[in-house]
Write a structure and sequence with these properties.
It contains two helices and 27 strands. It is mainly β and 372 residues long.
C-alpha cells in the first residue's frame, strides 16, 4: 500500500461558545458633549478611547464591536494573527467588562475588569493562533458587561475568521463525501500568487486532469473515491481509505498540499474514542526534504500544562523522528518542535505516523512532504 494512503487526520476548527443570559441594557446615551481627548492606556495594554474621540452610531442601543467580525482572509498555516476590536459604549453611563471568554484555546484576550467610558470605547487586541493545518478557522469571544447597577448584561460577540492555505489552494477547502454526497467530483487547485505550476501527483499517482497538463495558474483535478471505499468495506479496514487528498506540485512555495476528505471511513481518532492528547492539527506539512535530509515542524498540544513530552517516534523505516524542544505556549498549550530525517529509500511524496509519548499518554499525528 502506498505510504500516503495510510490512516490520516486533520481537524478543522469550528468553534461554539457559551453565552450568559441577557438582561435589558441601559438606555442609549444622549449626544456626547465632552471635548475630544487623547486615548489613555489601560493596565492590560488595551487603549481607552475617551468620549468625543470616537464616532458613536446614533441608532446604537447596546455596546457593540467595531468591527464585530474580523476576517483575516488567506493566511499561512501556523500564523499568529492579532486584530484590534473597539468596544463602543453608546450609553450615558460607563460599562465594565465582567467577562471576555474565548470559545477556543486558539484565541487570547485579556480585558476582564476594564471599563468602557460613557460615549467612548476601548480598543481590544485579540490574538488568533492559526493551527498548522489548512482550512477555515473560526473562533469567537463572548463578552458579558456590567452596568453601574451591578447587573450583568450580554455584550457583543466578537468573531475571528481566517482561511489557512499555502501558495496553492484547493476549492473547495475539503471534499465532502459523507452519506448522501457523491464520492466522485473535481477540485480546483490554484496558485494564490497567480504563478503557473503543474500538478505532478495526487495521492502518489498521476493526476486525472480536466485542464491541460501544462503550467497553469489553476488546474481542475478529477477524483473518484469509490474504489477506495469499496476496498475499505470489503477488507473491513478503514485505514486503507485516505483521510486526505495529497497534491504534489512543482510550485516552489507549495510542493505538497493536503486536502481533508470527509467520509465515514475517514473519521479522526477523537471522533471515535477519547484521546490522550489533543493536537492543534493532526497533520504537519514538511514540504521538500532532500534525500538523507531533515525537516522540522511545530505543533501545539492543547490542555497540556504541567505535562511533558518524553519522546517522539515513527514506525516508518525510511524516516526517524526526534524531539527538538518543548515550549510553554498561551494558556495551557505547549508548543513542540519535531525533526524528521529521511534515512534513504524511495523518494517522492510520503505520509508517515509520528507518535508522541508523554506523561499523559501516547497519540499519533501525521507528517507529509516530498523527498526530492
Amino acid at each position: 500500500m502506498h505510504p500516503i494512503l495510510s490512516s490520516l487526520a486533520l481537524a478543522s476548527i469550528v468553534l461554539g461558545g457559551c453565552e450568559d443570559p441577557a438582561t435589558p441594557p441601559p438606555g442609549p446615551a444622549e449626544q456626547a458633549t465632552n471635548e475630544p481627548t487623547t486615548a489613555a492606556p489601560a493596565a492590560s495594554g488595551i487603549r481607552v478611547i475617551a468620549p468625543g474621540s470616537i464616532e458613536v452610531r446614533p441608532d446604537a442601543t447596546a455596546v457593540y464591536g467595531d468591527p464585530a467580525d474580523v476576517d483575516f482572509g488567506l493566511v499561512k498555516p501556523g500564523s499568529k494573527l492579532t486584530a484590534d476590536v473597539i468596544l463602543v459604549n453608546p450609553f450615558q453611563t460607563p460599562m465594565t467588562i465582567a467577562q471576555a471568554v474565548p470559545t477556543c484555546q486558539c484565541t487570547t484576550v485579556e480585558v476582564a475588569g476594564e471599563t468602557i467610558p460613557a460615549g467612548g470605547g476601548i480598543a481590544i487586541p485579540i490574538t488568533l493562533q492559526v493551527p498548522s493545518t489548512t482550512g477555515k478557522k473560526q473562533a469567537a469571544v463572548n463578552t458579558v458587561l456590567q452596568g453601574p447597577d451591578g447587573k450583568n448584561v450580554r455584550g457583543p460577540r466578537l468573531t475571528l475568521t481566517a482561511i489557512a492555505a499555502y501558495a496553492v489552494k484547493t476549492t473547495p477547502l475539503y471534499i465532502d463525501a459523507l452519506p448522501s454526497n457523491p464520492v466522485t467530483g473535481s477540485v480546483s487547485v490554484a496558485a494564490t500568487d497567480g504563478r503557473p505550476f503543474r500538478v505532478l501527483t495526487v495521492n502518489g499517482r498521476p493526476p486525472v486532469l480536466l485542464t491541460p497538463d501544462q503550467p497553469l495558474a489553476e488546474h481542475v483535478v478529477q477524483y473518484d473515491l469509490g474504489p477506495a471505499a469499496t476496498q475499505a468495506e470489503r477488507s473491513g479496514s478503514p485505514e486503507v481509505f485516505p483521510k486526505w487528498m495529497i497534491f504534489e506540485t512543482d510550485h516552489p512555495d507549495a510542493p505538497v498540499i493536503e486536502m481533508r476528505i470527509r467520509h465515514p471511513f475517514s473519521k479522526l481518532p477523537h471522533q471515535t474514542r477519547n484521546v490522550a492528547l489533543q493536537f492543534d492539527g493532526n497533520i504537519a506539512n514538511l514540504g521538500v526534504i532532500p534525500a538523507g535530509g531533515t525537516g522540522t515542524f511545530d505543533v501545539e498540544l492543547k490542555q497540556f500544562a504541567g505535562k511533558l513530552v518524553t519522546g517522539v517516534r515513527t514506525t516508518n523505516p525510511d524516516f526517524r523522528a526526534d524531539l527538538v524542544e518543548q515550549v510553554e505556549g498561551a494558556g495551557d498549550r505547549v508548543r513542540v518542535r519535531v525533526a524528521v530525517t529521511n534515512l534513504g529509500g524511495a523518494g517522492g511524496v510520503f505520509m508517515i505516523p509520528i507518535t508522541f509519548d508523554t506523561t499523559a499518554g501516547s497519540e499519533a499525528m501525521y507528517a507529509t512532504g516530498v523527498v526530492r
